[in-house]
TrEMBL record:
Signal peptide: none annotated. InterPro entries: ATPase_NBD, ROK, ROK_cs. This is Glucokinase. Keywords: Kinase, Transferase. It comes from Micromonospora marina.
Length: 306
């Protein structure tokens, strides 16, 4: 990268675009709510509108995008998406945004973009093999090796949110099934678990606030969620053998204390040195990683690339 690049983050609740320089510094950032109505076209129009105002200061190359959903690594279209973005599955994001912006567009999953960003300029910098989990409204994961994302046969490797998790059997995952890790260790999971205790319906963010304020029920919900997350990550370390595990996302800070305790308790002895690290880029992780993707495309397993 020799000139600033625009990176876009398309999520279920917000969309952001940023101008990122060759040193991974965010020079400008724009954000708007992701449209709840109007379908994929409205979402794409919002993303393009945010990016358009930054392109004049960018170099002539591609735009990078990190988006919710499973992304086809060859076409940049959405293979699978949950209900957080209605109608998103099947959307040819790369082609549609390229038409709107008159620029080539490269697309990957938002958690993969966050992993790329953290390995470029964040908590995973200088490490060759990193497992990243993003804890937000939902729960995602990605595996990065030497600055590349291990995509798997369908570009979806690392989606740890759909692992079975003790304590989640009554909680519904974003995929529609019950008992998955995302159903307990995510913002949505915190809200659902709190509601099952008989409390009034509140958001996961509010559950976290109440836990911090000393609400005993909220603290129990957060403790249970963090414990499930930490134990699952410990098992994945034994499977994947990374140098470090990075925890990102808006709910990461809430779950990290309990997750760290469970992680250390469950980590097999042979991997006792593998740290559990908080992400360093915060809300910029996806846009920074998307910018990196634009000029250093991710090569997925099997030889295909975004």
């Amino acid at each position: 990268m020799t000139a600033p690049v625009v990176g876009i983050d398309i999520g279920g609740t917000k969309t952001a675009a940023a101008l990122v320089d060759p040193g991974a510094r965010v020079l400008g950032r724009r954000e708007a709510p992701t449209p709840a109505r109007g379908g994929p076209a409205a979402v794409l129009d919002t993303a393009a509108g945010l990016a358009a105002g930054l392109l004049a200061a960018a170099g002539p190359g591609p735009v990078g995008v990190g988006t919710a959903g499973t992304v086809d690594p060859v076409t940049g279209a959405i293979r699978y998406a949950t209900g957080s973005l209605p109608g998103w599955a099947g959307t040819p994001v790369a082609d549609e945004l390229a038409a709107r912006l008159a620029r080539p567009v490269r697309v990957t999953n938002d958690v993969a973009a966050a992993a790329l960003g953290e390995c470029w300029a964040g908590a995973g910098r200088g490490l060759g093999h990193v497992l990243l989990t993003a804890v937000g409204t939902g729960l995602g994961g990605a595996v990065a090796r030497d600055g590349r994302i291990a995509g798997g046969a369908r570009g979806a490797a690392g989606q740890l949110g759909h692992l079975p998790a003790p304590g989640a059997n009554r909680l519904r995952c974003g995929c529609g099934r019950y008992g998955h890790l995302e159903a307990i260790a995510s913002g949505t999971g915190l809200a659902a678990a709190y509601a099952l205790t008989g409390g009034e319906p509140v958001t996961g963010r509010e559950v976290a606030r109440r836990a911090a304020a000393g609400d005993a029920t909220a603290r129990q919900v957060v403790e249970r969620a963090g414990t499930a997350l930490g134990a699952s990550l410990a098992g994945l370390v034994a499977l994947l053998d990374p140098e470090a595990v990075v925890v990102a996302g808006g709910a990461a800070g809430t779950l990290l204390p309990a997750a760290t305790t469970a992680y250390r308790a469950e980590l097999p002895g042979g991997w006792a040195h593998v740290p559990l690290l908080p992400a360093a880029l915060g809300a910029d992780a996806v846009v920074v990683g998307a910018a990196r993707l634009a000029t250093a495309p991710i090569h997925h397993d099997g030889g295909t690339s975004t």
